[in-house]
Amino acid sequence: MSKPLQNFIIGLGIASIVFALYGVFNGGKFIEAIGGIVIGASLIGAIVINQNRKSN
Question: Phi and psi at residue 28, in whole multiples of 5°?
Fold first, then answer.
């Protein structure tokens, strides 16, 4: 996977988490934000795991 694509996916993950938390702090329910947080964390986690496999 190319470095720009990895950076883009990490950016999407961070944006997903940030906007989910923004929704919670803006009056939304936490249960509604869990999906965005999980998606963001899984995107970032997939990149981290992929980088660890390449380094080993």
Answer: -80, 170
Tell me: the pLDDT tens digits for 5-54? 999 999 999 999 999 999 999 998 999 999 999 999 999 999 999 988 88
Q: How far apart are CA 2 and CA 55, in angstroms?
A: 15
What's the predicted TM-score (pTM) here?
0.87
Copy the structure tokens of residue 15.
């944006």
> What residue has token string 């702090």?
25
Tokens (6 digits) for 9: 């996916």
d(CA 23, CA 2): 32
Distance CA 37, CA 8 (A): 17
Q: Which contiguous run of DSSP H or E holds residue 49?
A: helix 30-55
